């Protein structure tokens, strides 16, 4: 095999592992281009999506080579993403023998949390979200019970390789039956809060973030595809809730004050910050962020919540604006850490931004259309403003940093070509 074959074989597997672990496409493409350039390849082309890898390049003898492969479903593992990022830095600086690259990739080891720790992380995240939405102690108990059901249900369905759409419907239907039954007997105060918290375990929040990023960063085809996929998965989740609701009949649905806004006291805002801290810590464990990085991710969650509260007070009528500013500063914090600690920014951004995703509005608006409830449907405008604000905020910041890196890389390439 020639050098170009070894390098592209490695880049193909690296790109696949990066995407599966949670990296955005811009980062994947830039990493591949840097490695190819480091080994003297040129005319590098990356046409990558969340489901397909396609890389081509030429060597110094003008030999053209291409590699393609499919990408399996995402299994977000930010610790592995960190290790892959470190490997990219090492390779571009030390240039090991091309024939050893695949071996270096295969030797990457991650200290994954045990099953009980991941389950605990899910529970902590759900408790934090529950308090963010105003759940009482009974609601929190049922939320935790549902969390256990979803956690082991997903593991069971993964073993039999059941389609994700069916899995979403079945797991949410079972949890909704339990929650609505307890609501009917008076144990649960708000089945909305319980079920909306649990949907965060199923709603593809990271693909939603990445789809918006792709739409605004030149990967429109992949962004539209991912957005449609997210929409379909959300529909199946909501369908599970609706099916259970119709099973019980009319339960006198009332929109709670928690979902219609209202001014919060200082003490309530402090509790909101603490609840966000819990949720971020829980999702950090779920995403397999190790203990030496969890504290930084938690700080990111606190930052985004504080800015969200402050800007919400300053601009109460402009949801798009205060969502944009909050997510912008979260992204800025993540990018600063990425530069100073030489880690991918997603390591700190994903756990902190998850509590800001309007899962409550997504579910309520979807249910509003199913139930033909005009009060719920009216929340659609708030949902759109929230999603657009969050998307623009982190995309403006992270994309600016990405293009700065891209520009620096192009200057390095041009300088190298001039020297040659």
Task: Walk me through what this model shows.
The chain is mainly α. It has 17 helices and three strands. It has helices at residues 3-21, 25-38, 78-94, 101-106, 115-132, 137-159, 164-184, 191-199, 205-216, 220-248, 266-286, 291-314, 319-341, 346-353, 359-371, 374-377, 380-419; strands at residues 42-46, 52-58, 64-70. A hairpin with a 5-residue loop joins strand 1 and strand 2 (52-58). It is globular and about 75 Å long.
Number of helices: 17
Shape: globular
Percent of residues in beta strands: under 5%
- Give start-end ranges of low-pLDDT stretches: none
Radius of gyration: 23 Å
Task: Note the run of SSEs as H and E.
Answer: HHEEEHHHHHHHHHHHHHHH
Terminal CA distance: 25 Å
Strand order of the largest sheet: 1-2-3
Helix amount? over 70%
Q: Outline the biggest β-sheet.
A: 3 strands, antiparallel
> What oligomeric assembly is this protein in?
single chain
Helix/strand/pairing category = mainly alpha
DSSP E strands, number = 3
Mean pLDDT: 83
Can you tag this structure with a few keywords?
mainly alpha; 420 residues; 17 helices; 5% strand
